[in-house]
Write a structure and sequence with these properties.
4-stranded mixed beta sheet; binds glutathione; alpha+beta; 222 residues; Glutathione S-transferase Yfyf (Class Pi), Chain A, domain 2; 2 domains; 52% helix
Length: 222
Amino acid sequence: MTDGVLYIGNKRYSSWSMRGWLAVRLAELDVDVRLIPFERPGPTKAIAALSPNGLVPFLEHNGARVWESMAVCDYCAEVAPGLWPADRVARAHARSISAEMHAGFRELRMAMWMNLGRDFSGLGRTPGALADIARVEALWAETRARFGGGGPFLFGASFGAADAMYAPVVARFLSWKPEVSAETSAYCSAVRAHPLVAEWYDDAAAEPAEWLVEDYERAPAG
Ligand SMILES: N[C@@H](CCC(=O)N[C@@H](CS)C(=O)NCC(=O)O)C(=O)O
């Protein structure tokens, strides 16, 4: 008997699920993970029926019901405070960049969706997506310069909630290969090599062919 359930969508596509799952795993919550494959056209009925906002991730843990990936990160950080930096100033910065991710980068998310199994090199470079990428690169560089000296992640040696919030952006950069700085590439490599990110990718690669969604597999017009 576990302490609850984390509901997620397809690992291949569901960027918000990836954030919630990473936070839950970093905090080592003892929950069952139930993956509900997306139906298209959506919304997915089984997700709509169980989750308060009709979306995943959705976490039920010891009586708590938590939806929205930022809330899942914050809940997990109550259990495992190390998910946010210990220092007040660094923690404020981590929360700010994570909230910026949660609320924004819409053009990037629309033009370069997450598909862990495809190489969409060179595609999706709309002006809005490129502007979002420039902002992501600037905020990663600033964060690493101020707080990341001790290791390869945003706040140094340990992969925390802010890295979890940006891991699906890394995944997009790896699939769509926009032109980025050497510093950005190094951060992407570090995130991709993290054992939990590697586990998520491996699970995504093992998903059955029936779960593939044609719209997310088709390359956009170059
Ligand atoms: N703001 C939400 C966004 C969650 C979201 O958009 N989830 C998508 C999957 S990535 C979803 O559940 N879609 C339902 C569907 O496609 O049926 C969060 O941060 O958790």
